[in-house]
Amino acid sequence: MWAKYGLYTYLYSMATIKFIIQSDSDTAGIYVRLKEGRLFDVKAKTKFIINSKDWSTTKGQPTLKTESLKALNGDLTAFKSDLLSHYNRTKNKLEVNTQWLKDFINPPQQVTETPDKLVLYYDYYALHKKGVLGATTFKKLNVYKHLVERFEKETKTEYLLKDVDSKFKLRFETFCTKEGYAPNTIAQSIKSIKTMCYHAQTNGIEVSNQLSNIAVKWQKVEKIYLDLNELKAIETATLPTDSLINAKDWLLISCETGQRVSDFMRFNKDQIRHEGGKTLIEFTQVKTNKIMTIPLSKKVMTILKKRKGEFPYPISDQKYNEYIKEVCKVAKLTHKVKGSIMNKETERKETGLFHKWELVTSHIGRRSFATNNYGRIPTSLLIGATGHSTEKMFLEYIGKTDTQKAMQLAEYF
Predict the structure, then answer these.
(1) What is the rounded CA–CA span in Å between residue 367 and residue 339?
(2) What pLDDT, on a 0 to 100 scale, did the predictor assign at position 5?
(3) 118-213: what CATH class?
């Protein structure tokens, strides 16, 4: 028996799947929970229902008292097997989150013919960009699609691609503003809608002749980063738990390498090589699919030496964001600066003055690396390290204005 299932247990031992119910009704929905260590813990409602009296909470399955309950248990077992297979296929390719799980339970409509409806075109675009766009971009596409769906529900209108004109933009902006979305979120959403339209136009779908005149207005936002003094305070901070120490080490590594959390959280010692007296790490960026080779600084090597050559253990993006806020709070980054934070009740960003530690997110390491080294390391080399496509994108990322660039140039005269 062990020989038969030993390999299966080994392959999937890191991921666990459990079924639960959350009500005591006679039509209780069955939820599935997928968890892998500290990496993620996601839950979603399946299509299965059961009388709560027929559910075994201790076993996490139907009680098997009748043939119909046995059949339901068989369906749940098959569902679990399919979910594990899907997870194994997409692991390290797609971000595993609640939406990923919901999409497995209710797969997005696969559009084969080129649609002329805006909402449907998001699925068509995603289908044809599969393998080109990263997991984060696909996630954002889904977010924008659902926003358009809510807009259609509010306006009781199903929009065609050719309906995206100036009038559409005004109605969409009004809806988003009423819903409490930040100006830049609205602008990014409109940009995504225009992307769908232009892509559809290349496929022979009719679009509005006003499309090119639809402009979006971006609002300047504060670029939050950790300066060298703040990084020193973080490095020397005494932390009470192993979880916070682990998160602190990841934060310092991110500030030294300039990589996204989707990339540095996957760093491992097997990616390291030594060449010309330097220590390098080679990996493929998740978002861009670029093969990257960057040097590891003395500070990173000190962290690895402390950990006997190993990187810190990986944790979920959510936990990482929670922990590094606490790390920076302990490091006394308590002065107030202007920025934006997510209101958990409204699920919308709010701008104002906040303690510096409250504004710390996973992006801060990448921006800190770029900002702290700008002017010290040639910009072309920094762009090569961060993986930005153009210098313009890089400078916008760190918030450098034309005046600041001119002043920096003046130092050489």
Answers:
(1) 15
(2) 33
(3) mainly alpha
Maximum pairwise Cα distance, the chain: 87
Is 224 exposed, middle or buried (CB count within 10 Å of its CB: 0-12, 13-18, 19+)? buried
Question: How many C-beta neighbours within 10 Å does residue 228 have?
Answer: 10
24 touches 31 (CB < 8 A):
no
CATH number, domain 228-266+297-410, options 1.20.1530, 1.10.620, 1.10.443, 3.30.300: 1.10.443
Distance CA 30, CA 211 (A): 45
CA–CA distance from 115 to each of 137, 157, 185, 193, 198 (Å)?
21, 17, 26, 14, 13
Instruction: Look at the pTM and tell me if it is higher than 0.70.
Output: no
Please write the tens of the pLDDT for every residue from 263-309.
Answer: 999 999 999 999 988 999 999 888 777 889 999 999 999 999 999 99
Q: Which residue ranges does the chain devote to CATH 1.10.443?
A: 228-266+297-410
DSSP class of 295? E
